[in-house]
Amino acid sequence: MEQSIITLDGKDNVGVAVRELRAGMRYAVAGRGESVTAREDIAFGHKIALSDLADNEPILKYGEVIGLARGVISAGSHVHTHNMHNTVE
Questions:
Q1: Per-residue model confidence as pLDDT tens digits over 26-58
Q2: How far is it, in rounded angstroms, from Cα 85 to Cα 7?
Q3: Exposure on the CB side of residue 21, measured as CA atoms within 13 A
Q4: Predicted structure pTM score
Q5: Cα gap 12→41, rounded to integer Å
Q6: Whole-angstrom Cα distance, residue 74 to residue 52?
């Protein structure tokens, strides 16, 4: 399976698509020995949830909190402004 998702820190709960991801396809996460099935099409450079995230759960990228989940986000879902909010408002 081609590694199509990268993380920047071992604590990250989102990965970054290094190519366009297609809904229903399973993709490997580089360096983590795990994979995730994309629930929707995800564009190159965008974030994908690597596990289920609860409402208001911190979203970790770079090993740092970059926002909070806005509602429940299922593993394999696109993570962007529509389902996360900034922690600095």
A1: 999 998 999 999 999 999 999 999 999 999 999
A2: 20
A3: 33
A4: 0.93
A5: 21
A6: 4
